[in-house]
Design brief:
seven-stranded parallel beta sheet; 17% strand
Length: 229
C-alpha cells in the first residue's frame, strides 16, 4: 500500500510509521517539521520516504509537499493526519500567535493536505484524522486546552463532512479521538503527568484501523480512551 503519515517525526506518528514499515509492501511518505528526525527515522528503511513540511505554513505546502508525493506515488491508498500542536494556557492568557499555530497545525493544515492528496486517492482508499477526547462532544474538558480542544473538535466535524462529500468517490473518512497518551508533546504540556497508554501501544491500533476499518465504517468519530478523557 502507498501510505502518507502526516506528522511522523516523533510521538505517536513516528510509532505508526515504524509499525507500518514492518511490511515491506507498504511504501510510506512521512512528513514533519524536523528534518533531522525524519532522516533518522528513514535511515535503513527503504520503504520510508521523508518529506520535510510545516503544515502550519500553508503557502509552502503545495510546492514542498505535492511534488515529492507525485515523484514517489502515482496513487495514495491511506492518508493518516497525525500532526498536532498543543499549547497549554488558559483562554485569557493565550496569545493570538499561539492560538493560530494550533488551529493551523490541528485543523487548517490537515484540511489542506487532504485537498492536495485527494485527487491521488482511488476508490477504496481511507483518510484517518486524529482528534482528541478534548474535542469529543460531552467529554470532560480541562482548563488551558480551549484552543487545542476546539481545533480537534473541528477536525472531527470535518471528518464527518468529508465522508459525505467523498462518498461518491469511494473514499472513506474516519476520525479517532484519542485520550491521554504518553508522548513528548504531552510531557511538555503537562510535566510529571503519566498517561495510561504509551505511543507504541496506540500506534498499533491506529495502523490497524487505517488499513482495515474503512471496510466497516465511514464518517465515524471513534473515542479511544481508558478513562474520560
Amino acid at each position: 500500500m502507498n501510505i502518507i503519515v502526516n506528522g511522523g517525526s516523533r510521538g505517536i506518528g513516528k510509532e505508526v510509521v515504524l509499525f507500518l514499515s514492518q511490511d515491506i509492501n507498504n511504501q510510506i511518505i512521512v512528513t514533519g517539521r524536523n528534518e533531522v528526525a525524519l532522516k533518522s527515522l528513514a535511515a535503513g528503511s527503504p520503504n520510508i520516504h521523508p518529506v520535510t513540511a510545516d503544515i502550519s505554513k500553508q503557502d509552502d505546502l503545495e510546492s514542498t509537499f505535492t511534488g515529492k508525493i507525485v515523484r514517489n506515488f502515482k496513487k495514495v491508498d491511506v492518508l493518516i493526519n497525525m500532526a498536532g500542536a498543543l499549547v497549554s494556557k488558559e483562554f485569557m492568557e493565550i496569545d493570538d500567535k499561539e492560538a493560530r499555530f494550533m488551529m493551523e497545525t490541528n485543523f487548517f493544515g490537515p484540511a489542506a493536505v487532504i485537498r492536495l492528496v485527494k485527487p491521488l486517492m482511488p476508490a477504496g482508499s481511507h483518510i484517518v484524522n486524529i482528534s482528541s477526547m478534548g474535542g469529543f462532544q460531552g467529554s470532560v474538558k480541562f482548563k488551558g486546552l480551549s484552543y487545542y480542544s476546539s481545533s480537534k473538535a473541528a477536525i472531527s466535524c470535518l471528518s464527518e463532512c468529508l465522508a459525505e462529500e467523498f462518498k461518491g468517490s469511494g473514499i472513506s473518512v474516519n476520525c479517532i479521538a484519542l485520550g491521554a497518551v504518553q508522548t513528548e508533546m504531552l510531557g511538555e504540556a503537562f510535566p510529571g503527568y503519566k498517561a495510561p497508554v504509551d505511543a507504541f501501544e496506540i500506534a498499533s491500533f491506529i495502523a490497524y484501523f487505517a488499513l482495515n476499518c474503512h471496510k466497516f465504517m465511514n464518517g465515524k468519530i471513534i473515542p479511544v480512551a481508558v478513562n474520560n478523557p
